[in-house]
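Report of the visiting student (M.T.), summer placement. My assignment was to run the structure pipeline on a short list of targets and document each run. The first record concerns Fe2OG dioxygenase domain-containing protein.
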Amino acid sequence: MDLKNTNQIIVAATENDSTYDRKAEVKAFDESKAGVRGLVESGVKKIPLMFHSNNLVDAIENSENDFKFSVPIIDLKDIQNNPKLHTQVVAEIRSACCECGFFQIINHGIPSSIMDEMVDGIRRFHEQDIDVRKQFYTRDLGKKFMYYSNTSLFRDKFANWRDTIGCPMAPDPPKPEVLPEVCRDIMIEYSKKIRELGFRVFELLSEALGLNRSYLEKLGCSEGLFIQGHYYPECPEPELTMGTSKHTDTAFLNILLQDQIGGLQVLHENQWFHVPPVYGAFVVNIGDLLQLITNDSFKSVYHRVLSSYKGPRVSVSSFFMNMQDPKIYGPIKEILSEENPPIYRDISIKDFMAHHFAKGLDGNYALHPFRL
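After the run finished, the structure tokens were exported:
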């Protein structure tokens, strides 16, 4: 179905709600293979009903909140050569992981030129001619490179104003020719750099748990890497929808690169707080699997992205988790005790992800069914 026919369905639905057929609208949108970017390119002034959220009451920005709490910014400069500084950084990371599940890191060793080029590469892909990018459109999770809009589009109550490319870069990366030429070189280079950074962060997290520096790496937490490049087009009615609705991340860890547009928010003590872009910084957040194996010592917390008149917004998520890993994971025995008994059962990543994909972005913790 072409974009013109898709728009005809959208117009009909918005003009007469009594005839609205959500399944038809979602199907037409997906079959257009044009994504949200395609809607913007077609000139829509009203967003389709499939994107309307029924729960935007708490999405009103409250700037006063940002004076009460901010995500910690942790400086990694010279920690390898300064034991005192190293100990201080480990303590800061422990505090952030236990209290809010988010922190930003600066002086991490990845040049800003590589970070900038990665953002530009993701933007270049999504802003290609529609006939070029739609060749990559798929919902086949077995593909080595995916372009799609909304992972659980057909299950979620409403769609997010966002398009995505995704690619598993470890442990079994795609052949270079599988990646789109427009972002191929930078994706390969960036994935190598972000893996190295991931190893360093997992070492610090291991120490923050009171474990040997290599513990989480040997456990397998860092062996898988899945990179997603998100593109949030400018939205004509941002008050009606979300860029990304409230959720937690499933992986052990996410290292996020965001541009300077803003819009990321984290839920802390039942209030939403902005995570303002810091040029040259990465946002690091704990995922569900790391919360599980740390027995709730580290927190995987809700976050979201607001849609905006401004845009496009570009971000890059680097999820550390091997979805093909056959191992069974449960709370780390070395941190358990009579005072800290296990609160989760042992699970496989396959079973955990099956539950995640089945539930979609429903605003509920993916960990709930796995509690003892």
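The CA atoms of residues 38 and 221 lie 37 Å apart. The longest strand covers residues 163-170. I thank the supervising group for their guidance throughout the placement.
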